[in-house]
């Protein structure tokens, strides 16, 4: 078991080293985790407690259920030693100048200052500054060059020289883990994924505290096979990595397990909480997610990351006021974040103002072209606006950003079904089900497609409904439909079976309605024709409890049953000529 | 049209255009001289002018030549002053050291233009008329430059650097100017740093080129070279290799510069949308024409690059779909088809084909369904295809897209007639379409007929000439294969003309071929900017190219009419394909009707005139027919030789029929030589080629079991053969394969004849004859008559007279059109008849018998048909014996023995022709 103290020390040193190298987002992440570790009661100062979550936290209610006893795991091999800073003095002055240039975002200047410095640290900063300069220029060029065909072939033109230099360094072995990280990034950008992966693995194995390296590595793990083939030293950072990688690969329960485990140490980490919420969201535990986000916002009120997810939850729960509050708050914090635009879009969508919603989703996409959920949500808006071809286009872009996005596949199927092309739509539903085979809604959608007037493939529809029932159909459509379909096909035995099941379900949930009458009437009639009078009578008496035409029907049925029961032979009397 | 479609911003200044401008400055300097300095003669001056004209014309082409290519061309145009021209060009480029120089350059360009009201131009002054082609070009360049923002100027400037650097990095000849440029650069202290860095990257790039780690100059262009060369080869004669090579390399180099995104991305200037569409259209044609012989991966990499450059160009997905379709990759094809239609809603690219229906806001998803249906059809999922096409019918009715409806109906009828869906499950009945719902009660044939009629009617009213033509062809095919029957055959007035009507077949074929004359009316809407302008370039290079490449001026004159059309009138490939198909259909119909020469002529017409523009599968079919013809009429040796050639050409085509033909020929050959084991093996392999799905590949399945029955027959296993033939007949009946029925019946008659059961054979032979009559299958009828005659003879020698009469009735047909085997059989049978006729005396009339026997034996030897040859020689020997010509008798006897031994030991000479 890694002690909290050692974790803390590791992170503290790492933050310093990371910010020395201007790896700010990694430093930020590390900082969040540092504060996330439960405070040492010994050096408790009042100022510290302010950042600690109070015991009033609602989260506690949930975390008590899940907090594991992490004593078992964490058979930590001797922790990776923290590298000592070597060359502080030698190139100190120039380095300081370069770093301040860097901090002012004058990347080329920074790299120029360090042109002759040979220490690892300066080398990294020079390359990194060069890389960022290229990235900046690339972004600018993208806007300058954008043509009618959406041409955006601007590339980072420093990549070639960077790759050459870094590979030479690597060959001589004069590269440190930060250099390896940069090399991995460059290789990834150049499309050489295998080498990039190798380089990043090497980097995180020698210096595990660089979260940026881990997340680059994670983006390169597109399948579980790749993930399992990585040769990673065990370190507590690896657990973070695995958690996020599992989440990307839609292995939500595995990911949740990892985060629960990590919460043993980083019990106050916002990051872990947000990630847990994400996983729970995918498992459709909306209430829990809402509470977690509320809690998160209370502790970190200016947070924008992951807030789009929160807005989705609020949308699903149709909490207009809360959503508008969130949108307002986020907009005040930073309106030029794709997340903020997406939240506002969600708000307008909930209000039924679809044009405005589309506008905000568009803005989000302008800020980040690969923002998956905005594409999908925009598709939904277009569907609402009955602009199916635009919807199809938006969904397709989502799918091309991430082919595993079942929502977009589902949306595509829906759009085509709306256009009266059910057979064409089937392919998309099949795709969506492939990625999420345990969702009854998808199965029901597919069944409806088969059932449609144009296709009328009832056998296939029945199969789909059966799958939906097996997946735990929450809306109770499948059983009823199954019964009706069987009835339509004249298979009364099967129909009776499903009506009975549906009835059980409705009883359990305390529901009533036309479906119930229908089931009762069918069952009573069916049992009567099969001469199971006792059971038929039970259903008839149940029907008598309700008013309306069903009551009359029940009465006549009962009368028939009585007749049949009392003078049995008279049944055949009718057939005799009198 | 061009003016309407091109937007103002589409004309971008590129380094290549600047070179043209520089040359224009040389051509028309502002100084007042009748003949500017470097030119020694007016003709030299004019030649440069012509060259510049062609360059400006081709500026709308998708590929721009690199500086190096330009210099090479200049060398040919400029003759003795080429050095001066190229020097000037490179010097002028190297003098462009800052963006400001560019500004000044374009200011200078204004000077060479005359004023717009240039009435008062002096005689000895060379001034560009601003309204001339060259003048317009200069004005467009100036305008485009003036529209550029400062960033744009900077980009142009850097791309000029790359443009020049490429030229001297690849040819050492220009090192001088290279140094020049660099020394100039070095003087410029301000930008020192930047240039050092540039130099470094340049070095890296050079290093990379040299080491080949990034296979830029070495490999990628090669692959592309093949693509582009392939494009060119089809359209040009082989004799024109010289220019072809030059052009191909030029295109290839240019394409590599366009396509390679890592190095020269700045020199990329995407052309207009229309140009790219046109280019993609050409590529699509190429994919179709070459089938999978084009390497699919090279196209794939090319498309990938294009997509990187123009992510909004969705037609790339469609092209990728085509490519995958032709390389038989079902999943990728499906994926790309769906992606294409998802993105563009079917509105991109197809607007060129369907101008009549405006852009509906729903998109054109019915076209997606149509394409999907055809894709399923191609991959052999007829039921899926039918389902999808039914949906396509519904959706296109819903969106009232009649054009698509017409096409869909045609596709549907094609599907139904090809697949012969046996089960009359009312797949079509589920649709509420008025066309198909009535059809649900009818047989498949009748449905096909209705669909075709309906499609034809719609196509006619919509003036879709291509569809009309292909529908006519389909109709001809239908009438060829099916007996005309009134659709509702009850009521007193139902005419009973149970015959196919060759006149109507012919009429339909002719109607189909009318497309060519109709086409001129439609051509204006079909021309595509991109492809047209690239044709422009090729044509324009001819006038100045001719004196330079004088050695090939003679050969070019042989260009045919169609090639001429190809280039200038630019008849699209699809039209010539349909016309070509009409010739193929003609050949097939003659084949069925039994006229070998006509069939052969039509196939030859097809192969010579349309071979270039046809799709690979059609071309393959033509070759197949010719080879079959060879085998039937010239014997196997020639056929196998021809097959070898065809194999090389077509083996890469997916679903190649060549293999099928090869098996057929080998089987036939083995049967004739009595090598039954081999025959059986071939037969099994043939059966293995067919898909296992019911109703798919019916032709192949019928063929296989027909051959199996024949093999069994040859092995004298009569009852088994009869069983196979019987079940085959049932299948044919079930799938309504009428023509095949006739031949199965004939086969049954043969089986009974061979088994010595002549009485049983007679009804089969008669039935076969009546089938043949109703389908006008004259040759098959003749051979059935021959069998009938043989059966009569089998009943006893007293029927010899009748048999002989029958035979003589069929003789004209057999001798005129029959193949070697049939003719030989007839001859031998004739001799047999004479010999068994009691009233015939051998000693007096022996020449008649010997004549036919000699004929027969010659033909049989060509066929290596040992069994029948042995019989012929046996008879010959007997006759000679009777007449007393002992020497000849011995000769015939030895030949008889030779054939008998060959028949008994078939393995001796077996693997000679096995490839």
UniProtKB/TrEMBL annotation, chain A:
GO terms for cellular component: anaphase-promoting complex. Keywords: Cell cycle, Cell division, Mitosis, Repeat, TPR repeat, Ubl conjugation pathway. Transmembrane segments: none annotated. It comes from the Eukaryota. TPR repeats lie at residues 338-371, 372-405, 406-439. Pathway: Protein modification; protein ubiquitination. One of its GO terms (biological process) is cell division. The keyword Cell cycle applies. Pfam families: ANAPC8, TPR_11, TPR_8. Residues 7-277 form the Cdc23 domain. SUPFAM superfamilies: TPR-like (SSF48452). InterPro entries: APC8, TPR-like_helical_dom_sf, TPR_rpt. Belongs to the APC8/CDC23 family. This is Cyclosome subunit 8. The lineage of its organism: Eukaryota, Viridiplantae, Streptophyta, Embryophyta, Tracheophyta.
Automatic annotation (TrEMBL), chain B:
Component of the anaphase promoting complex/cyclosome (APC/C), a cell cycle-regulated E3 ubiquitin ligase that controls progression through mitosis and the G1 phase of the cell cycle. The APC/C complex acts by mediating ubiquitination and subsequent degradation of target proteins: it mainly mediates the formation of 'Lys-11'-linked polyubiquitin chains and, to a lower extent, the formation of 'Lys-48'- and 'Lys-63'-linked polyubiquitin chains. The APC/C complex catalyzes assembly of branched 'Lys-11'-/'Lys-48'-linked branched ubiquitin chains on target proteins. Coiled coil: none annotated. GO terms for cellular component: anaphase-promoting complex. This is Anaphase-promoting complex subunit 5. Keywords: Cell cycle, Cell division, Mitosis, Ubl conjugation pathway. Residues 317-417 form the Anaphase-promoting complex subunit domain. Belongs to the APC5 family. One of its GO terms (biological process) is protein ubiquitination. The keyword Transmembrane does not apply. InterPro entries: Apc5, Apc5_dom, TPR-like_helical_dom_sf. The keyword tRNA-binding does not apply. It comes from Brassica campestris.
């Amino acid at each position: 078991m890694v002690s909290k103290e050692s974790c803390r020390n590791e992170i503290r040193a790492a933050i310093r080293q990371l910010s020395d190298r201007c790896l700010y987002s990694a430093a930020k992440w590390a900082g969040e985790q540092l504060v996330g570790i439960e405070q040492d009661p010994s050096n408790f100062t009042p100022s510290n407690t302010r950042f600690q979550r109070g015991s009033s936290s609602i989260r506690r209610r949930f975390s008590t259920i899940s907090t594991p006893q992490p004593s078992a795991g964490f058979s930590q091999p001797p922790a990776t030693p923290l590298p000592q800073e070597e060359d502080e003095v030698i190139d100190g002055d120039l380095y300081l100048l370069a770093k301040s240039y860097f901090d002012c975002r004058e990347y080329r200047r920074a790299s120029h200052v360090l042109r002759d410095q040979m220490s690892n640290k300066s080398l990294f900063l020079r390359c990194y500054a060069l890389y960022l300069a290229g990235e900046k220029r690339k972004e600018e060029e993208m806007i300058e060059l954008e043509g009618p065909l959406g041409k955006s072939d601007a590339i980072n033109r420093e990549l070639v020289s960077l790759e050459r230099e870094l590979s030479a360094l690597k060959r001589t072995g004069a590269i440190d883990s930060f250099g390896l990280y940069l090399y991995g990034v460059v290789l990834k950008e150049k499309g050489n994924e295998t080498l990039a992966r190798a380089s990043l693995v090497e980097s995180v194995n020698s210096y595990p505290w660089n979260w940026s390296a881990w997340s680059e590595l994670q983006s390169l793990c597109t399948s579980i096979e790749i993930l399992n083939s990585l040769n990673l030293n065990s370190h507590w950072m690896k657990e973070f990595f695995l958690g996020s990688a599992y989440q990307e690969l839609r292995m939500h329960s595995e990911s949740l397990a990892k985060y629960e485990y990590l919460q043993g140490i980083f019990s106050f980490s916002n990051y872990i909480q947000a990630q847990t919420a994400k996983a729970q969201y995918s498992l459709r535990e909306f209430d829990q997610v809402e509470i977690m986000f509320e809690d998160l916002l209370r502790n970190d009120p200016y947070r924008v990351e992951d807030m789009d997810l929160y807005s989705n939850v609020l949308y699903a729960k149709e909490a207009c006021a809360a959503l508008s509050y969130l949108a307002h708050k986020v907009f005040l914090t930073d309106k030029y974040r794709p997340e903020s635009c997406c939240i506002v879009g969600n708000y307008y969508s909930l209000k039924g103002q679809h044009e405005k919603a589309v506008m905000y989703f568009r803005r989000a996409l302008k800020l980040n072209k690969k923002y998956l959920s905005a594409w999908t949500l925009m598709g939904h808006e277009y569907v609402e606006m009955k602009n199916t071809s635009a919807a199809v286009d938006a969904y397709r872009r989502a799918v091309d950003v991430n082919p595993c996005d079942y929502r977009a596949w589902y949306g595509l199927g829906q759009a085509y079904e709306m256009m009266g092309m059910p057979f064409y739509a089937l392919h998309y539903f099949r795709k969506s089900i492939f990625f999420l085979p345990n969702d009854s809604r998808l199965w029901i959608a597919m069944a409806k497609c088969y059932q449609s007037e144009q296709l009328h493939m009832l056998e296939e529809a029945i199969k789909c409904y059966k799958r939906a029932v097996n997946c735990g159909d929450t809306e109770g459509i499948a059983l009823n439909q199954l019964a009706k379909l069987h009835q339509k096909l004249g298979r009364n035995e099967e129909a009776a079976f499903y009506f009975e099941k549906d009835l059980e379900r409705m009883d359990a949930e305390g529901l009533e309605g036309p479906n119930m009458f229908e089931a009762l009437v069918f069952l009573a009639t069916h049992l009567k024709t099969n001469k199971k009078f006792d059971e038929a009578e039970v259903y008839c008496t149940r029907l008598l409890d309700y008013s309306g035409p069903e009551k009359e029907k029940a009465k006549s049925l009962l009368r028939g049953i009585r007749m049949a029961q009392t003078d049995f032979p008279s049944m055949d009397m009718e057939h005799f000529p009198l | 049209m061009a003016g309407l479609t091109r937007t103002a911003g589409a004309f971008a200044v590129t380094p290549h255009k600047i070179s043209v401008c520089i040359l224009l400055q040389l051509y028309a300097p502002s100084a007042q001289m009748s003949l500017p300095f470097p030119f020694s003669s007016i003709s030299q001056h004019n030649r440069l002018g012509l060259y510049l004209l062609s360059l400006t014309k081709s500026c709308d082409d998708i590929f721009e030549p690199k500086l190096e290519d330009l210099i090479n061309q200049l060398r040919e145009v400029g003759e003795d002053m080429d050095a001066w021209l190229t020097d000037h060009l490179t010097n002028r480029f190297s003098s462009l050291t800052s963006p400001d120089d560019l500004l000044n350059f374009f200011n200078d360009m204004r000077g060479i233009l005359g004023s717009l009201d240039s009435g008062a131009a002096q005689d000895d002054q060379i001034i560009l008329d601003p309204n001339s082609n060259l003048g317009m070009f200069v004005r467009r360049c100036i305008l485009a430059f003036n529209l550029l923002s400062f960033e744009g100027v900077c980009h142009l400037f850097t791309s000029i650097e790359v443009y020049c650097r490429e030229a001297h990095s690849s040819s050492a000849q220009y090192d001088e100017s290279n140094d020049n440029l660099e020394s100039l650069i070095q003087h410029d202290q301000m930008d020192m740093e930047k240039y050092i860095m540039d130099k470094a990257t340049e070095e890296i790039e050079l290093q990379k080129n040299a080491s080949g780690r990034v296979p830029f100059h070495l490999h990628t262009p090669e692959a592309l070279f093949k693509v582009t060369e392939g494009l060119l080869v089809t359209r040009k004669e082989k004799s024109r290799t010289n220019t072809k090579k030059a052009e191909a390399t030029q295109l290839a180099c240019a394409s590599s510069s366009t396509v390679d995104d890592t190095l020269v991305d700045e020199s990329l200037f995407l052309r207009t949308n229309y140009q790219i569409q046109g280019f993609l259209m050409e590529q699509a044609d190429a994919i179709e024409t070459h089938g999978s012989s084009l390497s699919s991966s090279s196209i794939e990499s090319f498309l990938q690059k294009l997509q990187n450059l123009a992510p909004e160009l969705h037609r790339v997905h469609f092209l990728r779909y085509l490519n995958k379709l032709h390389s038989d990759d079902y999943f990728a094809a499906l994926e790309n088809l769906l992606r294409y239609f998802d993105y563009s809603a079917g509105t991109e690219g197809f607007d060129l084909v369907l101008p009549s229906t405006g852009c509906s806001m729903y998109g054109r998803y019915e076209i997606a369904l149509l394409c999907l249906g055809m894709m399923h059809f191609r991959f052999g999922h007829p039921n899926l295809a039918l389902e999808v096409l039914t949906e396509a019918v519904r959706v296109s009715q819903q969106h009232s897209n009649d054009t698509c409806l017409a096409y869909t109906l045609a596709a549907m009828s094609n599907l139904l007639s090809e697949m012969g869906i046996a089960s009359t499950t009312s797949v079509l009945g589920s649709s509420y379409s008025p066309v198909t719902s009535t059809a649900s009660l009818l047989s498949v044939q009748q449905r096909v007929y209705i669909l075709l009629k309906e499609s034809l009617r719609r196509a006619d009213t919509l003036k879709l000439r291509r569809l009309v033509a292909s529908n006519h062809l389909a109709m001809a095919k239908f009438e060829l294969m099916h007996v005309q029957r009134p659709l509702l055959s009850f009521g007193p007035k139902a005419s009973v003309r149970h015959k196919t009507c060759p006149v109507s077949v012919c009429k339909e074929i002719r109607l189909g071929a009318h497309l060519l004359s109709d086409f001129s009316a439609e051509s204006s809407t079909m021309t595509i900017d991109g492809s047209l302008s690239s044709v422009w370039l090729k044509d324009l290079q001819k006038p100045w190219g001719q004196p330079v490449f004088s050695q090939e001026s003679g050969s070019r004159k042989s260009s045919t009419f169609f090639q001429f059309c190809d280039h200038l009138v630019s008849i699209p490939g699809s039209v010539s394909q349909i016309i070509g198909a009409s010739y193929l259909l003609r050949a097939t119909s003659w084949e069925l009707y039994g006229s070998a020469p006509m069939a052969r002529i039509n196939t030859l017409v097809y192969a010579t005139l349309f071979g270039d523009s046809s799709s690979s599968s059609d071309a393959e079919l033509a070759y197949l027919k010719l080879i079959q013809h060879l085998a039937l009429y010239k014997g196997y040796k020639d056929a196998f030789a021809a097959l070898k050639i065809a194999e090389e050409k077509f083996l890469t085509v997916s679903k190649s029929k060549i293999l099928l033909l090869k098996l057929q020929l080998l089987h036939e050959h083995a049967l004739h030589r009595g090598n039954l084991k081999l025959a059986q093996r071939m037969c099994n392999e043939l059966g293995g080629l067919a898909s296992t799905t019911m109703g798919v590949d019916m032709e192949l399945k019928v063929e296989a079991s027909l051959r199996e029955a024949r093999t069994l027959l040859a092995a004298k296993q009569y009852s088994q053969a009869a069983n196979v033939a019987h079940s085959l007949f049932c299948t044919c009946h079930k799938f309504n394969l009428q023509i095949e029925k006739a031949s199965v019946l004939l086969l049954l008659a043969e089986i009974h004849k061979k088994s010595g059961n002549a009485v049983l054979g007679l009804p089969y032979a008669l039935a076969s004859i009546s089938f043949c009559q109703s389908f006008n299958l004259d040759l098959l009828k003749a051979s059935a008559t021959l069998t009938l005659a043989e059966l009569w003879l089998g009943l006893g020698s007293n029927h010899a007279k009748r048999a002989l009469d029958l035979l003589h009735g069929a003789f004209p047909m057999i001798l005129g059109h029959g193949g070697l085997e049939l003719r030989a059989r007839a001859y031998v049978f004739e001799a047999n008849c004479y010999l068994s006729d009691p009233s015939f005396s051998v000693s007096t009339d022996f020449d008649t018998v010997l004549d036919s026997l000699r004929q027969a034996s010659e033909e049989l030897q060509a066929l290596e048909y040992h069994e029948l040859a042995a019989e012929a020689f046996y008879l010959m020997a007997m006759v000679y014996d009777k007449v007393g010509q002992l020497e000849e008798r011995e000769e015939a006897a030895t030949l008889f023995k030779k054939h008998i031994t060959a028949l008994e030991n078939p393995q001796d000479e077996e693997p000679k022709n096995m490839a």
